[in-house]
């Protein structure tokens, strides 16, 4: 049975990147914190913005790293080691190029799929991939040579609306996971498609 104790939303820090696709993980954390009346505060020792949140009868840490995306593992390690949180109790929320906007899915294990934030987290965890992921679809450019500028770009209004709906559903499903069980949460989220 996996009990989530830490949820990390991946992002690049600063206003310049706040509205970019690569920050979808942070959008999720901000919405989750807001829903539970929590204010994220910067904690230098954890290299990120954090809040402690109670969902059902579970205490969960929320974290948005303030390192660059490529060094997200530094924040994950700092907080998880300090609070003795095992890898299988961590959920990493990130943008997913291989899903269109409006789709979000849970996953456990697997490789980084070219995502530099995940790549660094896996390295920082000693190549342990047992953490959970929440992949938020942001779509993919037609030209694969433009991946970097695509993820560092701002989604169109319609795309952002679809991403936001998927995030809202993913938050509800995370709550289902914490209050009821993971399988129910997965089944609900994986049958959802924002329109």
From TrEMBL:
Catalytic activity: an N-acyl-L-alpha-aminoacyl-tRNA + H2O = an N-acyl-L-amino acid + a tRNA + H(+)
Subcellular localization(s) per the UniProt record: Cytoplasm
Residue numbers marked as site, Discriminates between blocked and unblocked aminoacyl-tRNA: 12
GO MF term set: peptidyl-tRNA hydrolase activity; tRNA binding
GO biological process, one term: protein quality control for misfolded or incompletely synthesized proteins
Site label Stabilizes the basic form of H active site to accept a proton, positions: 95
Binding site for tRNA: 17, 70, 116
EC top class named in words: hydrolase
Positions of the catalytic residues: 22 (proton acceptor)
Alphabetized Pfam families for the sequence: Pept_tRNA_hydro (PF01195)
Record keywords: Cytoplasm, Hydrolase, RNA-binding, tRNA-binding
Superkingdom as given in the UniProt entry: Bacteria
Family note: Belongs to the PTH family.
Subunit structure: Monomer.
UniProt name for this protein: Peptidyl-tRNA hydrolase
Species for this entry: Candidatus Erwinia haradaeae
